[in-house]
Each structure stands twice: as structure tokens, then as C-alpha cells.
Design a protein that fits this description.
The protein is an alpha+beta fold. It has helices spanning 2-13, 19-42, 45-68, 72-96, 125-128, 131-137, 153-162, 174-186, 201-205, 246-252, 260-272, 331-340, 407-414, and strands at 104-106, 113-117, 141-144, 167-171, 190-194, 223-233, 236-238, 241-245, 279-283, 286-291, 293-298, 321-326, 347-352, 354-358, 363-368, 371-376, 379-393, 419-420, 426-427. The chain has 3 domains: 2-96, no CATH class; 104-237 and 386-393, Rossmann fold (3-Layer(aba) Sandwich), CATH 3.40.50.10330; 238-383, Tumour Suppressor Smad4 (Sandwich). It contains 13 helices and 19 strands. A hairpin with a 2-residue loop joins β6 and β7.
């Protein structure tokens, strides 16, 4: 609160010397930068070049204005104060009401664990970290996939169950993990996640150490069990997200795997244009129409911007889908999204139990945990609460999830007021 007061005081003190100019120029620069980014993404040729120049020139122009007007020091101090405000506010709210961890229960040591490992996943993490040798030393049977053959990992998992496996595990990407997790849930067997993929979002939200995949194997000898939700899209399981629209169309392209950024930039003008096929959705009975992109997650992320990657989910057992709808059709709407964030008219953020996606086409592109698929419409997303038993090590680093700043709660915390939670607990 002191940092917020300090930021306001700096601007008030400089009111006669350009305080309003600082605030106005900063806001205008943000809007112009957002408009430039939209032109860059939604067009080709000269307009794309103009958009790139605008996106770069806007913040530079604001800095030049502050410097020539002798306002750079005031702008810097004000920015530092606001930055300190947000950092301190998130820390205060996190400490005052820490997210209750997912409940872990004691788990017996598996007798016949079977682990499926992809040697190509994550740039060869299976071999680099010696995962096969370590797993076999702990008594696990390892099925090493052949990189030259596209395997049916679900069939391999079912065969392992038929042969007596009492645990299924995967060292691979999130898409592969989801397929084996579905088999584990079907037979009510514990599931072991070994973070040998590229990003390992599911492992991160389970609190696993993504820098040391071998530590995940400690669960075989000293583990505990978490009950988490499992997403379902048209009968197929997912552990993280299902994407429809722009992102799903990009992922479909064969060249995407080799050049993600280049493929996305090349396709964006077509996918964001006026003639692009839009999506309609029904979210728990409420209609959401004409969306360019729709993202559905297994439990909601902390904030809307975290759907895109690197974001975190406080829980995986909340029993709700996270839903993000995007509809941006002009530079003005892009600027509005940049300024107003989740309050923008172009962004829909909600939670749901059931999401039904429809389109004028009989079949649409769908990206399930990053895997490119095509599904007949309508496509229904739902959740299987507590369907998956996940075996994790007792010693895992966990994740720190900063919650969005709630200024009302922050003020209540500052003045020492308390409130009762729905569970009957007292908090600031």
C-alpha cells in the first residue's frame, strides 16, 4: 500500500511538471504498441512491416518524450513504485491466504510398475538423465518406444495392465501422458509422471522438479498419492488444455514442429482475417459466438494470459474446466485488450462443467495437449473429477502460485480486518 501511495505521490508532485503527461503518454504508448502488434500479426507485406515498426517505435517514442521533457526520472520512479506495488501485493495476498495444497495420501510401493519412455522426448532427456537404468534399478519394467515407428501408447499401456502391471508411468510429453493416464484411470491404477517432455506443464502443476526428471522416480520407493481431475474431449483424455481455432489450425501444419514461430507468423493473417471460420460454443448453457480461438483447460489457470504457456494452475482437483474465448478483429480491439486485460470485450474468461464447441464445418482442428487432431462437430469438453490417481515423490519442490491482485482484499489486509471463508476459516 505504501508503494501504491508513493507512485501516486510522485505523479501528484510532478503534476505541474508533466505528471499527467507521464500517465497519458504511457497509456497511449501501450495502445499504439498493441495496435502495431495486431497489424503485424493480421497482415502481410507493407502493413506487417508498418505494424512491426509501430510496435517498436511506440515505447521508444514515449522514452524519448520523457527524456526531452526532463520527465524520465519521474517516470522511472513512478514505474518502480508501481512494480513494487504489484510484487508486494501478490506476496501479501499469497501469505495471507495460501492455496491449500492438493491432499496427498499414503501409497504402498508398487510391485509391478511399468513405465513407457520416449527416447526422443524433450531432446533426449530419457538417455541424458539415465532414466531407463534408474527405473530398472528400482524394479520397474521399462517399455522404450522406437523413434522410427509411431506407437500406439494406449495399446501398450492396456497390454501392460493385462500382464499384471499395478502402476503405469510415462516419460514423455503431455500428450503421451494423457493417453496413458486415461488407461490408468480406466483401471483405477496409480499413474507416475516423469517430466521428460519439453515443457512438462502437468508435472509443474503437480509440484515435480522439472530440472531433474530422475527425481520423479523416487515415487516408486517413497511416494504418496494425489487424486486429480482428468479432462475429456469427445471421449479422449487431456491433462492440460484443449485448443480450438487459431492455435489448433497452426498446430495442424506439418511444418509447425520444425519451425513453430515461422509457421505461426505465416498463417496468422489468414487465421485472423474476416473470412476465417469462427467458432461458437455453449458453456454450461450460455452461448458464446463467433470466437477466433477457444481454450479449455483441466482446472483454471491463475490468470488469462497464462493459458498460452508457462502459466500455472493452483489446483488440479477443483472439479472445474477453465475457459478462455478470444475475439479480436481490429487494432482498436487489440489496444482495448492490452489496456483492459480480462475486462476487455474481446476476451471471455470463465469456468464451466461442460463446453460444447460448434462450427459451420462438419469437422474442426483441435489441439489436445499440443497434439494435432481433427474432430467432428459438435465437440464436447467435460471433466472427470478425481478420476486419476497420481503417484508423486514425498519430496518435491512444489510451485508458488501468485494470485491476481485483489485490491479490496489487499486493503482489508492492510487495515487488519478479517473475514470468514466458505469453509469457516478466518483470513485477512
Amino acid at each position: 500500500m505504501l508503494a501504491a501511495i508513493g507512485a501516486a505521490a510522485v505523479l501528484m508532485r510532478a503534476l505541474g511538471q508533466g505528471g499527467l503527461l507521464i500517465a497519458g503518454a504511457g497509456l497511449l504508448g501501450l495502445m499504439v504498441c498493441a495496435a502495431g502488434l495486431w497489424w503485424f500479426l493480421a497482415h502481410r507485406g507493407a502493413v506487417r512491416l508498418l505494424g512491426a515498426l509501430t510496435a517498436v517505435a511506440a515505447p521508444i517514442g514515449v522514452l524519448v518524450l520523457f527524456t526531452q521533457g526532463g520527465l524520465w526520472l519521474t517516470a522511472l520512479v513512478s514505474s518502480l513504485c508501481w512494480g513494487g506495488t504489484l510484487v508486494c501485493a501478490r506476496a501479501a495476498l499469497r501469505v495471507s491466504s495460501p492455496e491449500r495444497p492438493m491432499r496427498a495420501t499414503a501409497a504402498p510401493r508398487p510391485v509391478r510398475p511399468v513405465l513407457i519412455m520416449n527416447p526422443k522426448s524433450g531432446g533426449g532427456k530419457v538417455g541424458r538423465f539415465g532414466l531407463v537404468e534408474r527405473a530398472e534399478d528400482l524394479g520397474a519394467r521399462v517399455i522404450l518406444l522406437d523413434p522410427a515407428v509411431r506407437p500406439d501408447v494406449a495399446a501398450l499401456a492396456r497390454r501392460a495392465v493385462a500382464e499384471g502391471a499395478d502402476l503405469l508411468g510415462v516419460a514423455g510429453g503431455d500428450g503421451t501422458q494423457a493417453l496413458v493416464a486415461a488407461v490408468a484411470a480406466e483401471h483405477d491404477l496409480p499413474f507416475l509422471v516423469i517430466c521428460a517432455g519439453t515443457r512438462n506443464h502437468f508435472a509443474m502443476d503437480l509440484g515435480l522438479d522439472r530440472t531433474a526428471p530422475v527425481r520423479c522416480l523416487d515415487a516408486l520407493t517413497d511416494g504418496e498419492e494425489l487424486r486429480v481431475d482428468l479432462g475429456d474431449v469427445a471421449g479422449r483424455a487431456f491433462v492440460n488444455t484443449v485448443s480450438f481455432g487459431v492455435y489448433a489450425d497452426v498446430v495442424q501444419r506439418p511444418e509447425y514442429r520444425d519451425d513453430k514461430a515461422g509457421t505461426a507468423l505465416n498463417l496468422m493473417p489468414d487465421l485472423l482475417g474476416e473470412e476465417v471460420r469462427r467458432l461458437d460454443a455453449t458453456i454450461d448453457g450460455t452461448a458464446l459466438s463467433s470466437q477466433q480461438a477457444l481454450l479449455v483447460s483441466n482446472n483454471p489457470y491463475v490468470s488469462p494470459d497464462e493459458f498460452a504457456g508457462g502459466g500455472r494452475r493452483p489446483r488440479l482437483d477443483g472439479g472445474e474446466l477453465g475457459v478462455l474465448g478470444i475475439r479480436v478483429e481490429s487494432a482498436a480491439q487489440a489496444a482495448d485488450l492490452a489496456v483492459r486485460g480480462s475486462q476487455s470485450t474481446g476476451l471471455t474468461v470463465t469456468t464451466a462443467q461442460r463446453v460444447e464447441v460448434t462450427s459451420a464445418a462438419g469437422e474442426i482442428a483441435v489441439a489436445v495437449d499440443g497434439e494435432a487432431l481433427r474432430m467432428p462437430t459438435p465437440v464436447v469438453c467435460s471433466l472427470r473429477p478425481g478420476a486419476l490417481r497420481v503417484l508423486v515423490p514425498r519430496d518435491r519442490p512444489g510451485v508458488v502460485v501468485p494470485e491476481p491482485v485483489n485490491w479490496r482484499r489487499l486493503l482489508r489486509l492492510a487495515v487488519g480486518r478479517t473475514e470468514r471463508t466458505p469453509e469457516g476459516e478466518t483470513r485477512a
